[in-house]
């Protein structure tokens, strides 16, 4: 049976929501979107050609969703004026990423990583220097896993070794 959701009070921000619950809800949303993908949408790179985009509506929605999440993550880290709050936000993102990994949600995991690797966040050296050693280690392991080196070799192996259910990183398959 599914675990009961951990619902925060109504007057909260995403920082107040339990990390695992954020990962679980993100995974449910991602799974729903993945379930709508049709094999025919992957033919002829239709999602990338203006005249053929109508053939890949769900792939396009997935791409848009990925981009919205990565933009949200970047914004939620850089929006804070104080270093302490940016550190809290980055730690939160990394903690949620660790749960996404355990849930085998590689697509949302990559969108979170894209948000952290966005130029606006990437240049926040003091923020990165302020996160815990545990978070640094988690981020390093996830970055290595999700690297596009050798055509996503580490990610492909991890994906193959992971038990179902799993949500693959769509971008890896779109580039095949």
Task: Give a quick summary of the entry.
This protein has 176 residues and is mainly α. The chain contains nine helices and no strands. It has helices at 19-35, 57-78, 83-102, 106-116, 119-122, 125-130, 133-145, 153-161, 170-174.
Core attributes:
176 residues; mainly alpha
Tell me which oligomeric state these chains represent. Answer: single chain
Shape call: globular
Residues in β-strands, percent: under 5%
Q: What average pLDDT do the residues reach?
A: 94
Q: Mind telling me the C-alpha Rg? A: 17 Å
Write down how many β-strands occur, each being a DSSP E stretch of 2 or more residues. Answer: 0
H/E topology pattern: HHHHHHHHH
Structural class: mainly alpha
How far apart the termini lie comes to: 36 Å
Largest sheet: none
Total DSSP helices = 9
Helix content: 55-70%
**Low-pLDDT windows of residues:** none
Q: Your description of this structure?
A:
By secondary structure, this protein is an all-alpha fold. It is built from nine helices and no strands. Helix 1 (19-35) crosses helix 3. The longest helix is centred in the middle third of the chain and has 22 residues, at 57-78. The N and C termini lie far apart (36 Å). The mean pLDDT is 94.
């Amino acid at each position: 049976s599914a675990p009961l959701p951990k619902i925060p009070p109504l007057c909260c921000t995403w920082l107040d929501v339990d990390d695992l619950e954020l990962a679980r809800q993100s995974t449910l949303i991602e799974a729903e979107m993945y379930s709508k993908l049709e094999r025919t949408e992957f033919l002829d790179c239709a999602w990338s050609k203006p005249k053929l985009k109508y053939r890949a509506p769900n792939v396009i929605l997935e791409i848009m969703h990925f981009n919205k999440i990565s933009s949200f993550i970047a914004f939620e880290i850089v929006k804070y004026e104080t270093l302490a709050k940016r550190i809290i936000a980055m730690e939160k993102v990394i903690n949620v990423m660790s749960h996404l990994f355990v849930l085998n949600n590689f697509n949302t995991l990559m969108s979170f990583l894209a948000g952290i690797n966005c130029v606006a966040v990437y240049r926040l050296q003091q923020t990165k220097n302020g996160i815990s050693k545990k978070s640094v280690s988690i981020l390093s392991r996830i970055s290595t896993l999700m690297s596009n080196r050798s055509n996503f070799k580490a990610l492909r192996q991890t994906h193959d070794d992971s038990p179902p259910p799993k949500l693959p990183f769509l971008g890896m398959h779109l580039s095949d």
